[in-house]
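Q: Study each token:
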Amino acid sequence: MGEEKHKMTAAVKTTPAIAPVHVVNARVTYRNAPIHLLEKFTFKDIDGAHKAFLGKADFEECVILQTCNRVEVFVAAKDPDEARLIEEWASSVGLPENDFANAEISRDREAVMHLMKLASGLDSLVVGEDQILGQVRRALEFSRSGRYASANLSLIFDRAVKVGSRVRTATGINKGNVSIASVAVNLAEEYFDDLEGKTIMLIGTGEAASLVAKVLKKRDINFMVASRAPERAQSFAGTVAGTPIPFDSALEMLRKVDVIFTATVAPYRLLTFERIENAMKNRLEGMMIFDLSNPRTVDEKVATIHGVKLINMDQIAELVGKNMRSRIKEINSAEKLINGEMKSVDAIMKRMKAEPVVVSVFKNVDTIRGRELKKALAMLGKKLGPEEARVVEQLSYAIVEGVILTPMNNLRKVVEEGESEELMKIVAKLFKYEEKQ
């Protein structure tokens, strides 16, 4: 009927029929697994993993987020089985399920709140970091393009990206240099004017080392990575960045290295006075060493060697402390924005519970309207011309809309206010609504 399409059909289509579902998030992050072990939880075939969660595991929607610091799976279904999620995850990456004993699992509102904080930089290793927002956005885009995410996960991811952007523009949570790694690399660049062409070595494969590696990688600076455990260096290089070298070789080539970052948890001195003194013999250029380890792994006497500049964690922490305190002060402001967005999401998710009933009622009533209209037009026969028949049809739509639209909108409103269970049952019974399995 062109532009005069009846209002009732429009009312049905205004809000799509979305079955009430639950959202579950399972995650393994830097909080519960060392950085070098996160790789084993990573999906090598990301497309196949999405298909497995939707096919074999029977979830309705799926979004997978993978970064150097986390692997997270978000699924949506009418009755999602958390154990089945972990089972399929373990199967996809070839791990025993008991390796997921420390995995964190959130459900429904808690899962949505986690995503909001994640996109806003509140769950990051460095508070307020910007990279995670783009990673969340790209994870959703991938799932949408593969049709793995539809209305429910799209809703919460869109809102998370929105609030993440607002937090960064409305607060100072991402302002100032608060990364120990960034400050260390900046100091090295200032010391040598430029790190291009310099020989750089990173000793360690833990959280602090991964931050240094990511800063160097982002600036297209080549470096070597060494660890007492060769397999860790290999895994770290493949997951984060760097060229792995044997630890013994690293110690032997110190005389050729310009910048050294140590970021380990070794309980002893890795770089002794004697080692660095020997490395500096007959050397024209200086060496810069950053001891980012806890406890320290560089002999403090190294600073007395001519041509060596030693910077320890305390010195760097003093430089970033002010900015970090400033960011932390912004957390409350960020959380207020998140809580405001959560109220809106809560209302929408509650309203979704009513949509199957609302849409079913409209469709059932429209079926009756169509049937009775057909009877009436048949009885009138040739007494009505095309224009008169159109007017009668429009009248049928108007009558149904006048009777049904207001109570259905009231139902939506009551559901949004959280007082819905009894009323939903009554409406379902009155209109003989049966939830499709």
User: Anything to note?
Assistant: The longest strand covers residues 22-29. Confidence is low (pLDDT under 50) at residues 1-19. The first helix runs from residue 7 to 14. The chain has three domains: 2-9+353-430, 11-175+327-348, 180-321.
